[in-house]
Sequence to fold (1192 residues):
Amino acid sequence: MGRPGAVIEVDRNTPPTLFHHGEGVRLERLPQGSRIVYAPDPIEPVAHPERAIRRALGHPLEDDPLRSLLRSGMKLTVAFDDLSLPLPPMAQPDVRQLVLEEVVEMAAEAGVEDVHLVAANSLHRRMTEDEIRHIVGDRIFSTFYPDQLYNHDAEDPKGNILIGKTSHGEEVTLSRRAIESDLVIYVNLTFVPMDGGHKSLATGLGSYRSVRAHHTAETLLNSRSYMHPPDSALHQSCIRQGQLIEDTVRCFHIETSVNNHSFPAVANFMQKRETDWTPADQASFLAIKQLTDLAPPGVKRAVFHSMRAPYGLTSVQAGQVDAVHDSTLDTVRRQMLVEVEGQTDIVTMGIPYVGPYNVNAILNPVLVVCMGLGYLFNLYRGKPVLRQGGVLIMAHPCRYEFDSVQHPSYIDFYDEVLADTRDPVDIEEKYEQCFAEDPWYRQLYRKSNAYHGVHPFYAWYWAAHALQHVGDVIVVGGQRAAVHHLGFKCASTLEDALEMAEQTVGRYPSITHLRLPPLFLADVK
Amino acid sequence: MLALQYHRSIPAYALVRATGGHPSVATSDLSMLDLGDVPEPRPPGPGWMRVRPSVSGICGSDTAAITGHASLYLDPLTSYPFVPGHEVVGQLDDGTRVVVEPALGCRVRGLTPPCRHCAEGRIGLCENVTEGAVAVGLQTGYCASTGGGWGEVLVAHQSQLHAVPDRLPDEAAVLLEPFACCVHAALRGGASQGDVVVVQGAGTIGLLTVAAVRLFTPPRRLVVVAKYPFQREQAKRLGGDLIVGPDEVFQRVRFATQARRLDGLDRPLLLGGADVTFECTGSARGLNDAVRFTRSGGRLVVVGMPGEEKVDWGPIWQRELNVTGAYAYGTEMTGERTFDLAIAAAPDLALDNLTGPLFRLGDYRDAITYALQAGRLNAVKVAFDLRDLRA
Amino acid sequence: MKFELLSDVRAVRDGWRWGGVRPASWPEAGPGVPARASNLDWARQEPVRTLRWLIQRGLSAPFARAVTSLRVEGAEWLRDQKRPAILAANHVSHADTVVLLAALPDRAREQTVVGAAADYWYQRPMLGRLVGLWLNTFPFARTGGAQAVLHSSSQLLKSGWNLLIYAEGTRSIDGRLGKFLPGVGHLANETRSPVVPVHVRGTHRVMPKGRRYFLPAPVEVRFGKPLEARNGEGSRAFAQRVEDAVRALGDGSADREVMGTWIDRWRAAAPRTSRR
Fold:
């Protein structure tokens, strides 16, 4: 139990490899000599989560016990991470529910009347009632919704206040409610090393003015990678903003981490290595493959997005943000790190059906780029797994299909902006302001469940480092018109893609397959 | 002479309509069309000349009449039997190449004093189309006395004739008449430099309107709604900024004008929208879309000939739209004749790219069937080639 | 849409050597996923949930209602739940669970888990799976440490499930109410959930202890007003209060404390405002 991550070499006897293909699964045979990188097994969760949480709140790191900070008559704001993590969403009860219930219980004992619970969704979309209920649980939902439990509105002209500029001239805004509070508690779930720390409050309760200080093409180009904060310009900027926030408001951070048990029992085959598949897993795979091949898109989507992952809480710590976050990252890296010897010429990966920005919606082509060349490419420490100028092969249907409720600005970004240019710096210069200030997108962000007008730009900048680093991108099984519109090459099978890649990297290239999800952080030597 | 004639026959009309205007029925022996030997039209008086057509276009109004889709409003304004064909480039007896300006106004009919419209130069709106030297008819090609382009010979008044410059080949000159209509429409639309203009439809009329708007009233942004790939190519070449498909017109116009979009049960609508829209499809769908993406108080110019289309008048009323028709040509407000403007602009537009294929008169059934599906078949203007009929 | 079943089966068969030996070059097999206690997982996930919905809605609930000519009182307390509740019932016969589930309003029934004695129902795995599928049970250890059982029960409540437990711990032989175990009080205090007292009468004639088949007989189920632990009330005291409430329901008493006033019941049955 609890094997570390592994890099397996493919030989004659290796079974075929599972590739995610959007809302679908495939078996592919990688050429002999390829490497497959597997995530570590899920580490043992904490036996009694509620007890661990209470202990953390009673013995915080570099801060006073939470109970002593609460008193009757104070103004308390509790912010929490929205549903962009974990992915897939966690089975009930969510760890945030467990933490929030303890915090609320303490607040009730102390007699704190004025409590607001705010989903720190920054420029992400507002969550629906059901989604909020899923995160906070029935008890908190029925007690606080809707007056004291709500989504953060980054476009509220009176609700977001500029508190100052950092030493590098970055503007920092924070929600009015947070500034006026006596204590701001942040309940975080650090799913990947990018999350948490100072980034929580700086972006979560910020607005376009503060987020645009570091969500720029250049900053992200210089974040190599943003999954390893010491090497990330993005995080350096967030830390500066966060320090200004710490000086302005009294904060108390509670951070949690979970293991990588990402799939329910019926989809165990997605979690397990292929050599561990039992006959039940193989049957499960065949059943799900037939379902996804034959079912209409609506059914497929419903089935996939109803999956809930049985994550286990692996650590919880509370107190001063820097001390807390260092401890959290230790646990997260313990779960995620895999040692990989050297870079390769070709990296292959299957893009899963869900990313942070399309929970309960379709992964549109722009988000495919954000996932493949953004998040998944950047899951490294040190050097990328793919060498400079190498070829990235991703598997995804990549259809021209957008969710018109969640991603209205993405459609225009794809049609108008990408038709003109794909260079992140150009895009930022010519189009970002127009989208950010469009009154209709603003209205949809504030009243409907749409991502902010500027959000597709961030999705594209997320891939800036990869776009500069890779020699070529080939999409296997993608819709030709959409793939070409994104500026990539299209292949119908993996074999064809590997052959096409040889044009760029030469014959007999080295190939590494990243078998994710479950996610891991490649430590490349 | 050999000519294709259109006869007024109620049973034939009923039959053609019953089949929905299917080309094989609409061009058959049981239809209103008949190819045969008919007497040559005779010049009704001095100042009239014989013209031998070289290339004659097939227009949307012709195919609408043939398939029974034309508005019945036009029936009393036509005399039967007539030889269709009003987009004509031909030769005079002395060999001069001319293009025919089909409108039969007071001057052509020899009537003085001219009616108030002809006096202003708006000969397409002449009120005396029932009087004068020739029979009833708005244009050559809908008149029993003059003959038309789809025959060996037609007669025209000298005021109808314009010399065709040498550098304009016949295949380009045949588009001068529709181009003049579009120039007139563009000038009626009167878009200004800061406007967002939408041209809906990219058939002959749509593409020529794009060219006319670009030349005469260049706007801030020219959006063209084009369905087929060849149309999209030509629209771009002739001056469109943004070419969109009919399914995405609301989304793209919304973005181009930074409007707000509301989704209705049947169709969306924009709060805001285009300043001037040129409706060049003449279809119910096109008109219904156009009244919803043209901004309140904006102008909708109906250029493409519509039939009896079902249009929701609610948006027109609530948005206080200025809906205006654009028909034919004449003398514009600047004092120049539309045809002169068209002839001056045409040589630089390489209009002959839009013409093709050419058919012989004997192959009229294929020609008309092709013209009815032009967009899908990557064609714009289908025409008759009568040059080899000349001895 | 592509139909590749045959080639997929072939790929899996060849890849995993059906009917062959595990290749030596494969790394050591590991379980790959943490072993989970079976109480929380499969029975509460799709597709089992949909299957159960079909079985209960279509078959077992109408059948139970017909066989017992079921009479229900007090269902309005459960019609519009804001939070999950613990349903504390007396236990007379194996037929109790089916009958109680049939008596619940539809929405409450779909969100209800039943605590079934681990040493009885889960001894044989097939039986355990069967009741898990049909009645949405989870194993409730009657012996040994209470901690684990409390933990799994509280997890279920926190995940939005109503919990139906037979607080006497076993079926009554003579039909009279036995002493309630304090576990019910612990659970309520730990999770701060309301407890709904439930009394079922008549099932001892349907399927008494010892008989393996069932016979039709009239059954009456009464739900009482939800009870909440008072500040500082100990678990035992609260469990006693719940026991008294269930007894009062069984006596047919119209005690206001137990059945609530008509005003309480009227307000509990308030029409649902539309969600959107």
Observations:
- The radius of gyration of chain A is 22 Å.
